[in-house]
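We close this part of the discussion by returning to an individual protein. The sequence in question and its structure tokens are set out directly beneath this paragraph:
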Amino acid sequence: MLYDEYRRGWYWTSRKVGTPQESAFYDCLDALTNPLTTTTSTTAQKTKSQPRKTAKAKLVPAVEEKQKRSLFSGNESKIAAMNYVNRDCSSGPRPEVRIVTPPSNGTMRLEPIAHVLDRKKENSRSHCNDKTVDAVGVFYKSKPNYTGADKITLDVDFRHGRVNRYTYAIEVR
């Protein structure tokens, strides 16, 4: 079996035809080396085809968390501090935070901050509590004299191959 660059395919050097397993092997090899060729009934016949159209991958968050916050009307409050902590308790890169759903009854802002860790006991980084790390603070302020419910949805890219979605149900009193 030889590869012919001109015909862009494999062909048999003798009259005898290989086993189906050999044909499948060389077809697979050819598909990997030249994705624009497709195999017809025999390995010697190759035809050009249109490049395959691949569907765009829809970005789906890896983790979705829903949390509740309660605060007073008209006051600005920090509702989250997005951060990444390395195993040695040093600060990782600041995550990138994107607003998916802004609040409908208030305003929010994002600001780089220094954050003191206070992780739950079952968290793998709880031994890092009381250390200061770089973070992105998420601040919310309701409209004046507004009381009721509001909602914020954020996508957070921690820059290690995962995007998390956080939805905050905010009760304004």
Notes: The chain is about 10% helix and 45% strand.
